Request: fold
Amino acid sequence: MQVTWAELASGAAEARDGQWVEIEGWCMPAGIEERPGYLILTDEPGCCGDCLPADPARRIEVFAAELIDRAGEEVRLAGRWRVLDRDSAGWRYQLYEARLIAAPRAAPHGFTRRGMLAAGGLFTLSSWMPVPALAADDAAKLAAAREAMGALTIDLHSHGGALVGRRRVPEGAPFVPLAEPMRQGGMAVICLTVVADSPVTEVTPDKRIKPVRDPAPGELYAFAEKSFARLEALVAAQKIGIVTDVAGLRAARAERPAAIVASEGADFLEGRIDRVDEAYARWKLRHLQLTHYRVNELGDIQTEPPVHGGLTDFGAEVIRRCNRLGIVVDVAHGTYDLVKRAAKVTTKPLVVSHSSFTPKPGARSRQISEEHARVVANTGGVIGIWPPASIFADLAGMAEGIARLADKIGVDFVGLGTDMMGLTGPSVLPSYRNLPELAAALMARGFGKEDLQKILGGNYRRVFEATIG
Ligand SMILES: [Zn+2]
Ligand SMILES: [Zn+2]
Reply:
């Protein structure tokens, strides 16, 4: 028996508690951290990490009986309906033992090749064909890759756990699992990153993020306070440690995952240098990305026309303060001109936490050229390669992208920046559980154990030690 979203909104769906039902909806886009079989179904397509509706009648927490690998897609699910009363995490409706019943009103691409094959060629668009679970991966190969990754794996850029979002932060939206997929995939440390300019940016229909207005005085500082407090609540809830020094980093292991407090954008400084010290002491900030999607007081960004000619004098002052305090300086989203001046100013290695190499980046591209990457490498820094499906078709493609940059500037300067739950579209690395698959793809591409460990953690560890040391 089908349940509709209108019934959720009216409350009529409450009468279905315990029944076996079917419902159509959208799987939250890739980047949602999950445990196996865990997913979130919403009434409308999500566009980005900000899209989890606050209204509990517009989302369903799903515990599937099989892997449902359909992030970002519209699906029809069958399962046992459950209605919650005063759930502490803010959920109203759940679906247990859920299975995929193909896709509703689907275009042919809505069906997987596996589904087509399973249908034995008798497949028609009007029939509802169950899709079989994923074929078992080569377990031995994955186990070997996981072993080869080493213990100190580090993600240079993550918003995992549903940390960020223009609405999530003020509304205190529920978290999603973060520590558990880290443990399962062997990810020891993530740079857990709040976003500084969310209140004044929007996602356009073509999935670009643009600033839409100027912030009011104090607005982005207040938003950052809420964001850092939400980060503290997330790590406390999931028993994730916070790394503040080198000993803490060295001790981190995937069995007891840890986070480095980071901010994407220094907009909350609002031009006040003393706020760097405040964020260091009050929020344990150890990784600061200077700019994001708004041209702020520190400098120019890749996605908007330049107005400062690169890094501003205030941006240079912030870098010197970060060097002195022990905060990693991240120049992701900054223009090539910004990075060149930053490299002259800094006495510590620079990081580009999430980007990728392309020979000739187009106008407003988030990718970087070899020269741009080389400026960062020359500081002893590291460039995190990032997994949007718009750039790489799959993990083998991502491994190839890592290899191409390593071939240009050396394996000592390349890392991993997943942008977990921050991408506006699908990711080829949607969960930390996929990390051993990336490691296997890197090994298949020819990286040995030593290089693999540099890419997946060692290179950032070097930068962190040089900066915080
Ligand atoms: Zn970013
Ligand atoms: Zn991000």
